[in-house]
């Protein structure tokens, strides 16, 4: 089941909103003519219309509906709507550069890594269609020419629905909040989650959601985090917080436009009785908003599956101490650290034996993969390779890391991790003076960085959904 995590590039496009009023005021009126001569010209042009030229309804609207409107629609997280012809027409001057550069719709993986079932990028033909349309007269066409809708997306039929305990009103444009959700008490045996759907309570606020599972023996530690933070939930940034033992595992995620996540047939993630779910929500509240959110999730479960799945959070255990093993020097624009793991590593051996119930020398299937860094990340790469290097097979490679557009990526074909192969993770960072964040309008001075949960710490994490091979 793909766990996608994605945030929106509304900051960069949002600046262009300053020009929207002038764009609307200056946009051409395609229904009125200024004088008799222009009316005659229009009629002559209409008599010679190229029937193959793209129109809004026949060609462009279907692409915009699937690639843009999932964020850019009323009451959604996008800073402006692109639902109608008039809206698209008015905003075309700022849309064209973003589409041509590949900034929108955001799709971070490099083209030469792998192919993904949840690819949100425009195809070359779609990009060419939109750019040529915006470079021309942008005719509206006839609504009757709009192609029929495709089949509806598959929906989760939940066996359980878990909801935030109370509404929460975010206080800033980048508000990361975690909410504890106890696993239903009446589920007294192991269950395997085979599908998950997030139901955002207030779509105009919810930027993305990540769901984590905390084992029963750690639940009290996370309830303490909640109790010690005033208001509903507790503040969290890089993850749901820490407790003694292994970190919480990912269960699923949501970004606008992402359909419900379904595991492959006969596959599911185990959740044990007494577990705690944690919903991490990134809120994007603009000034003046006074809205509350109460999001929830629905899960489909089975008592047993053919192949249990695990989500492997891969990193170098030595980095977690934050004692310099992942040192990122102040002022250095190009720092890299890398690590490998194979089936003999204690974390992998435990997951194979106890999580998957497979023999130590089993072939494994990697169904999706993602990366996680913080604000100074520059590039990240996760791959399968022969032990010691060579014969690489790319899981995901993000050549231009953007914390606001991180996700995980569902492979069209699972990759095999055999006992004679290893996983290789590498991250790059830019800690130069030019890449420092601003706090209260002042750019910070560079300082040494290391592993940590805080905003100005860093991480290097690979995340994979793994099963035993068929």
UniProtKB/TrEMBL annotation:
Give the region (Disordered) as residue ranges: 31-54
For bias kind Acidic residues, which ranges apply?
A: 32-44
Asked if the Swiss-Prot or TrEMBL record annotates the protein with the keyword Heme, the reply is yes
Give yes or no: UniProt keyword Heme.
Answer: yes
| Entry coiled-coil feature ranges | none
Give all residue intervals belonging to the Cytochrome c domain.
51-138
UniProt keyword terms in alphabetical order: Disulfide bond, Heme, Iron, Metal-binding
Domain of life, per the record? Bacteria
Molecular functions (GO terms): copper ion binding; dopamine beta-monooxygenase activity; electron transfer activity; heme binding
What name goes with this protein? Answer: Cytochrome c domain-containing protein
Say which species the protein is native to: Enhygromyxa salina
